[in-house]
Write a structure and sequence with these properties.
single chain, 62% strand, 2% helix, five-stranded mixed sheet, Maltoporin, Chain A
Length: 616
């Protein structure tokens, strides 16, 4: 668990940054606040997207209905009370997308009058403002209000690249740098796309009301507006004869190589703008019906009414020219009812029902001027659909003995996708697709053994599944370089069988050591592959079986009341076990999964001084 004190000591700027120190966690962020595709994944699942780790805000699913992405930058760190991390799919309380585990972010509930304000300035003309106020009234009603604004003019975060072929050219240039594409083929860095600017505004309200003894209700809302853009691009290419910068040319040679760029244009250096608005509404109530019975209800909405970005065409200029606008509004509704029933003093039976439904629709418009949204014309392509998921779960926790506890549970989920439709080109008809559904049964079991106060052992096993999202099912699009990325409306849910064994030791005062070994066996893994008949087409398929094995270890030592040192490591071997669509990938490592991670740190809390020294 990560507390608010941990966030303050480490000067954490984004929530995903705080999770880097948790064993078994990989937080992937390619740049600063501007990275709209930052994600966090657990237990060796690929972190190319957020699809296999469930992220909750006060119990509400934060992910979009389109790609299951989470806007990590939409959370103000100052609003957070703690972050709970549940690694592995071993709880029956969570449904789809929790294959790697669950991250639950708990916001603050004030118990007295508290106010906080801060302002900061940093490199790249970076400004932050925060104002928060909260209080508790009549010992029944708690109210928290927060506002945060951030802006940065940014830095050149995205490089411009171009491939080259053999051939003569009238102009020879230097300044380029050889690199490789993810596929291993050659490409060349020719410049950057300019300073990547960003601003966002975050507003948060949380209301907690104790209706009567044993009865409480909580409502919260999080609103976020953000926008990014790019300044003047920079070319690294210089004329070998004159030293003048080079931006364009029909044939431009790479000095001393015999290679050339064909049709080098200003558009090769451009990137578009983007904007999104996210609103999360969350309602929870808890009712102590009897001394042994507790009822919990939850309803929530994650809404993205605006989520768009522009892309200039390769023939465009910074001042204008044709391009595209991609717009994807989406909504996710969540409902849940849960009962906790104590049976005697040693058993707790938990059961409940959950319902989730989502909608997303993408349209890509042609723009006569990529810098002006009002110039949109035809719809180039579109895709969208709906899904819903109904779940029933039951979990029984029994303390058989002060030293031995078991947790046995199961979850039954029904998933359906419906209302799906797509249009691949402007002249193609809209294709409407039939609804499909799947059932999934996910058993869970865990054993906890505490032979002594200073030692505990745990063994857990379980099954989980992840249904495909709207993007994977219905979104087909073509990049400005001519590569087509195809959806697949016939995708099946992914499944995993997982187990772990671990221990926690407290051999002497102030020392805690934990170690865990885990394995995940993933079937029907959704995988993007190159079409064997056309290397310019990428298809989604339930192509892969994967095997993920890992070890997590952590040690903490309290040296004094104000001083603590810690270190942890994660070792993961994640490989493709079977892939009929790409036999050569069998035995290869899963992408976006680091093989080794190490963290070391010192925490200091002396008098009024708090701080941390960390090394990742």
């Amino acid at each position: 668990m990560i507390t608010k004190e941990d966030l303050e000591k480490q000067n954490i700027q984004t929530v995903d940054e705080a999770l880097r120190q948790v064993p078994g966690t990989f937080a992937r962020r390619g740049k600063g606040w501007q990275d709209t595709r930052a994600n966090v994944n657990l237990r060796g699942f690929p972190s190319s997207t957020q699809i296999r780790t469930l992220v909750l805000l006060d119990g509400q699913d934060m992910s979009s209905a389109y790609t299951t992405a989470v806007q990590w930058s939409s959370l103000a760190v100052e609003d957070i009370e703690r972050i709970e991390v549940v690694r592995g799919p071993f709880s029956a309380l969570y449904g789809g997308n929790a294959m790697g585990g669950v991250i639950n972010i708990i916001t603050k509930t004030p118990k007295k009058l508290q106010m906080r304000a801060n302002m900061g300035y940093g490199k790249y003309d970076t400004w932050t403002y925060y104002l928060g106020v909260g209080n508790r009234f009549w010992d029944k009603l708690s109210l928290q209000l927060d506002y945060k604004y951030r802006y940065t003019s940014g830095y050149p975060a995205d490089l411009a690249r171009k491939t080259a072929k053999t051939g003569a050219a009238p102009i020879q240039v230097g300044g380029w740098k050889h690199t490789l594409k993810p596929t291993g083929t050659d490409t060349y860095i020719i410049g950057d796309k300019g300073d990547n600017s960003w601003y966002d505004i975050i507003g948060n309200l949380k209301l907690s009301w104790d209706l009567a003894p044993g009865h409480k209700i909580k409502f919260s809302t999080l609103l976020d507006w953000n926008e990014y853009g790019y300044g003047q691009f920079h070319t690294y290419l210089r004329d070998a004869a004159t030293g003048a910068p080079v931006v364009s040319g029909k044939k431009v040679g790479l000095a001393g190589t015999g290679l050339r760029f064909s049709y080098l244009r200003e558009g090769n250096f451009l990137s578009g703008d983007g904007r999104s608005h996210t609103a999360i509404y969350n309602l929870n109530s808890e009712h102590q019906v009897t001394d042994t019975t507790t009822l919990r209800f939850h309803a929530g909405l994650t809404n993205q009414p605006h989520n768009w970005y522009t892309s200039p065409d390769s023939k465009a200029f910074r001042s204008g020219g044709v391009g595209t606008l991609s717009s994807t509004p989406s909504k996710n509704w969540d409902f849940e009812a849960q009962v906790d029933q104590g049976i005697g003093t040693k058993q707790v039976l938990t059961g409940g029902l959950s319902y989730r439904t989502g909608w997303a629709a993408n349209k890509e418009y042609a723009l006569d001027n990529w810098r002006d949204l009002d110039t949109k014309t035809q719809v180039n392509n579109q895709g969208g659909g709906r899904d819903r998921q109904f779940g029933f779960f039951l979990q029984d926790e029994i303390a058989w003995h002060p030293k031995f506890t078991t947790v046995i549970g199961a979850r039954l989920d029904w998933w359906q996708t419906y209302g799906g439709a797509y249009q691949e080109t402007a002249t193609a008809p809209i294709t409407h697709l039939p609804c499909r559904d799947r059932w999934s049964v996910s058993p869970k079991i865990a054993f906890l053994y505490r032979p002594w106060d200073w030692m505990s052992w745990r063994v857990s096993g379980g099954r989980a599944f992840r249904p495909p999202n709207v993007y994977e099912l219905y979104r087909t699009w073509t990049s400005r370089w001519g590569t087509k990325y195809k959806s697949n409306p016939n995708l099946k849910p992914e499944k995993t069988w997982s187990w772990e064994i671990g221990t926690t030791l407290k051999p002497f005062k102030g020392n805690v050591f934990t170690a865990t070994y885990f394995e995940n066996y993933v079937d029907d893994m959704i995988y993007r592959t190159t079409d064997p008949t056309d290397d310019k087409v990428r298809n989604y398929n339930n192509a892969a079986k994967a095997r993920i094995k890992g070890v997590e270890m952590e040690i903490r030592q309290k040296l004094d009341s104000w001083l603590e040192v810690f270190g942890n490591m994660t070792l993961i071997n994640a490989r493709i076990h079977k892939n009929p669509y790409n036999v050569e990938s069998v035995g290869k490592k899963l992408t976006y999964v680091p093989r080794q991670q190490f963290n070391f740190g010192v925490n200091v809390n002396y008098w009024k001084v708090m701080g941390s020294l960390l090394k990742y």
